[in-house]
Amino acid sequence: VLHVAAKAGMWGSYQDFYLPNVRGTENILAACQQLGIPRLVFTSSPSVIDHNEPIEGGDESLPYPAQFVSHYSATKALAEQMVLAANSPALATVAIRPPLIWGPGDTQFMPRFIQRARQGRLLRVGAGEYLADTTYIDNAAAAHLLALDRLAPDAPIAGRVYFISNDEPRPVHTMINGMISAAGFPPMRITVPKGAVNLAAGLIEGTYKALQVQQEPPVTRFLVDQLTKSRWFNISAAKRDLGYVPQVSIDEGLSRLATHWQEHTP
Asked: Which of 53, 162, 211, 260 is deepest in the core (most CB within 10 A)?
């Protein structure tokens, strides 16, 4: 079983995330055990170890934080821990942590960027060069298949977790500009201070909660945080144990994305 389903995003109640991410994973594990499924590869997230501080070259030794930065990260951490604890001679499990998966078919990041670019509201937040890891979709899929091929009850990877990425950390604004340029939109040119955007995000969040608006706000403090701190990882363990090597570079991925958008109106 490749368990890739989850509620992602930055807005919603804890229960909204808990039911699919935690209860859903409990159901998957129970089904695997009842049906005698021997192998389970779980799609986790680097956000499960996000301590609200920059991460530069972090590896799998990073601990879970005492307080999570979002409901998504909290519930994914619970699910990851359940999956790893379920590893046994009857059911071998492994977890993969790919950051910011992108490419044709993306429903999480590209739609947000394109909507703001179309409305002329896509602004660079903060003037710093914040390096971040991303993962092109083909590389993420390949990592899961490599893990599945190598997974067995007595395999070295059983019960373990692995960071994977494109292994090409780039400034956040550079990646966003590359993605929207692939879709035919001009790059971000206006920079706004992080403090001002964070203050506005807090006010907007408060208004949405007071009015019980279900739709995700145009900007949240979590998003501001993600855009203004370095976050890249050491994937040596995945290279060693999974035989993982990114096959599609960021530049090649952006070229493929541009071709995709030429055939599909963004």
From this structure: 162
- Does this model's pTM top 0.85? My answer is yes
Three-state SS string across 77-119, please? HHHHHHHHHCCCCCCEEEEEECCCEECCCCCCCHHHHHHHHHC
Catalytic site includes residue 244: no
DSSP letters spanning 175-234: HHHHHHHHTT-PPP--EE-HHHHHHHHHHHHHHHHHTT--SPPS--HHHHHHHTS-EEE-
In this structure, which amino acid lies at residue 145?
L
Q: What is the pLDDT of residues 31-56, one digit of tens each?
A: 999 999 999 999 999 999 998 789 99
Overall average pLDDT of the 104-131 stretch? 83
Q: Are 136 and 168 in contact (CB under 8 A)?
A: no
Give dist(CA 119, CA 117) in Å, integer: 5
CA distance 21 to 42: 11
| Sign, Cα dihedral of 74, 78, 81, 87 | negative
Q: Is 208 exposed, middle or buried (0-12, 13-18, 19+ CB in 10 A)?
A: middle
**SS3 of 57, please?**
strand
CB distance 190 to 122 below 8 Å:
no
State how far the alpha carbon of 140 is from the alpha carbons of 26, 95, 114, 134, 227, in Å. 23, 12, 23, 10, 22
Q: Determine which one of 72, 130, 162, 244 is catalytic.
A: 72
